[in-house]
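Team,

Forwarding the record for the chain on the shared tracking sheet. I've put the sequence and predicted structure together so nobody has to dig through attachments.
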Amino acid sequence: MTVSRENRREFTVIAIIGEVDRNGVPRLGEDIDEAFRARPPQLIFDLSRMSFIDSSGLRVLVRAGAKAQRCGGTCALCSLHPTPRRIMTLTGIDAAFDIYPTVDAALAGGPLESRASLTFS
């Protein structure tokens, strides 16, 4: 797994490439922590090249979403491949995030593929 972080306007775009599993979670967590230096955090996860995510990776995304919400920020997902999308749908985690078809759509604020229907507590 590789992770890249890019600032685009007021957003931090975090691109995840490859498989997210317990071996890569510490690195992903470090990149997310760096993104939280911006206040309020406006995170967009570009998942266009993420081929798989396990429960430890899902936990990191959920924690990022919850922390962003507590800080008055946002956390969105975009460009989900079928396998990670299915995992997120089966676990119900997809309902916690706004999901966009592309990074550009997320930066522009629409159109959405699905809107978050759950809030973090």
